[in-house]
Write a structure and sequence with these properties.
The complex is a heterodimer of chains A (about 170) and B (about 150). Chain A is mainly beta and about 170 residues long. Chain A has 1 helix and 10 strands. Classes of the chains: A mainly beta (about 170), B mainly beta (about 150). Strand 1 of chain A pairs antiparallel with strand 2 of chain B.
Chain lengths: ~170, ~150
């Protein structure tokens, strides 16, 4: 064991290391989500209704998380919905595809009982609010794939705002 | 109920491009590796920690007495990897081992490229094999090799 000699010349100290995380998964959607995703490919938004509490889940997961029973009744919901809550994204991050600031919102589709997360565009980020009525803008039919990206984004419809009582249970 | 059809599958890759700041102690350790030196730090009781820690694990005091240690040492325990995974340092079988370098009182984790499991033993002596181009990270030590291979 020796004491380190003083360095002959000053060296640039190492201050940081790159420590990237890279995780490779293979996602299997399961029956219910696969139906939902194939619906998107056809320009349809499908959900499932719980036989006990009658709530409609979009996207469906095959079971009701509250009742613990299988949800086997398929329902199609309208693309129109209400912004229940939203986030204005102002922070750039690795892999970002959309110009900031942009809005990511939870949208309660008419006929559904759970919010769907998607983008709100064609409106300035600071003009989005709770209760705003929105509709989907789909990609061209031939470009649709079994992914939520088949909906480009949602945009305001200009309909009168939804009263708070119509979505207060979903906020 | 809707007719079942095969469930959809897709790759799902998560990536986080973290950069980690090192602080004065691990920063100096990495700076040493880049220069081909391995430095530990002396605890209040005289023992030498390799890799170094910022605080004494027994008393919690700040530590600042760096000590260069040897580039060979003892394997204190090891595990043979017969089927390396994509992110492992080798695409052939190797060992993960705790190596207590000469002059150190603690062992550090690294890979031992021994060729075959028969050559691994607790208490065996190994030596550092440096990477050709060093940048200041733990992979600057390419691996350890059985001491007789390093000569």
């Amino acid at each position: 064991m020796t004491e380190p000699d003083a360095p002959e010349e000053p060296v640039e100290p190492v201050l940081s290391i790159r420590a990237p995380v890279h995780l490779e998964y293979r996602y299997t959607a399961g029956q219910a989500s696969s139906r939902f995703l194939r619906g998107l490919e056809q320009g349809r938004i499908l959900g499932q209704r719980c036989p006990q509490c009658l709530k409609v889940y979009t996207p469906p997961r095959g079971a009701c998380a509250s009742c613990g029973v299988a949800t086997d009744e398929e329902v199609e919901v309208s693309g129109h919905g209400t912004v229940t809550t939203f986030c204005v994204v102002n922070v750039p991050f690795y892999g970002q595809k959309i110009k900031i600031p942009y809005v990511s919102a939870t949208i309660l589709l008419d006929g559904a009982d759970i919010g769907l997360m998607h983008l709100i565009q064609e409106v300035d980020a600071d003009k989005v609010y709770m209760g705003m009525r929105v509709e989907p803008v789909w990609v061209e039919p031939e470009e649709r794939k079994p992914t939520l990206e088949s909906i480009r984004y949602f945009r305001p419809t200009g309909e009168p705002d939804a009263p708070f009582d119509t979505y207060r249970e979903y906020v | 109920m809707a007719e079942p059809s095969p469930a959809l599958e897709a790759p799902n890759i998560l990536e986080y491009p973290y950069t980690r700041t090192l602080g004065p102690v691990i920063g100096r350790f990495m700076t040493g590796l880049r220069s081909g030196r391995i430095e530990g730090i002396r605890m209040r009781n005289g023992q030498v920690l390799v890799p170094p820690a910022e605080y004494d694990p027994e008393t919690g005091e700040s530590l600042d007495e760096f000590v260069e240690v040897g580039q060979s040492g003892l394997v204190t325990t090891w595990a043979w990897v017969s089927a390396p995974r994509p992110t492992h340092p080798f695409d052939h079988p190797f060992a993960w081992a705790l190596v207590r370098l000469d002059g150190a009182d603690t062992a550090m984790l690294h890979a031992v490229d021994a060729g075959s499991e028969d050559r691994m033993a607790t208490g065996m002596r190994v030596s550092v094999k440096w990477r050709d181009e060093r940048v200041g990270e733990i992979q600057d030590i390419a691996c350890f090799v059985p001491e007789e291979d390093g000569r």
